[in-house]
Amino acid sequence: MYNTIDVTQLNETVKKIKEQIAKVIVGQEQMIELLIAAMLAEGHVLIEGVPGIGKTLTAKLLSRCIDAHFSRIQFTPDLMPSDVIGTSVFNPQTATFSFKKGPVFSNIILIDEINRSPAKTQAALFEVMEERQITYDGITYILPEPFMVLATQNPVEHEGTYRLPEAQLDRFLFKIEVKYPVPEEEIKILEYAHRGVTTHFNEEVQPVLSGDDIVMFRKLVASLHIEQKVIKYIAELVYETRNNKALFLGASPRASVAVLRSAKAKAAMLGRDFVTPDDVVSVLHPVLCHRIILTPEKEMEGGTAEEVIKDITKKIEVPR
Description:
The protein is an alpha/beta fold. It is built from 15 helices and 13 strands.
């Protein structure tokens, strides 16, 4: 078991990451918090929002704060699975084939516009995201640690896009829905742009931690204490999604595990070595919003996943 000093260390590191990103990005505190939490909880993140609101920039800034390998993949309709995971290359000197690793062999992967690629290419990510490995031509290749996928998508433009299958959505720890900035934030964005901060952020942002530090902090997060009544609370919340009249599809046990891991990460980020019900509630929406499907009737009424999740939290008694 790690002691409180280690949790305090993590808390201080999180503050430093936020300070570095704040040099370039205005607002988006919730997105930054969730990205850090996902990194600590060994999860992947789907960032959804209209173009131009800083989705890709924020993901780049997070990777800039970490002294680890970063790669970016632009998904397009003609992208093939081999363009992502790698392919066999013939060596004429030895008359043999060797595996050339694709861009997915990195620590932090940014996938831009993930819904622009067809199902065949999206399916190539299934094993990558869940098992952190690739099986090619009968040989298994283990991906480096730490490993994290950050994917972006535009919810408005549908031409030339492919809906992500439920099996792939379920592999994302969080779905972060990014909103427009408020007028005060937009004024600061313009000031930053005027000073050239957003175009020269490599000079502004410096690494705060290494890949080895992330692995250490992940072990710390996994070791955090959680009482049995809080575990029961998580199970009851997720179970309610499967018996809710407003939902056509409820959350899987993978969602329960995701809530547990991300609640631990949130507690550690706040400098605590134990999980509270408030930690659970704080991560419930980003964990569940992409895993549940509303009934057609509820959608016609104008209902949202956020409303249903709030109703569920009100229905389930909070442990004391």
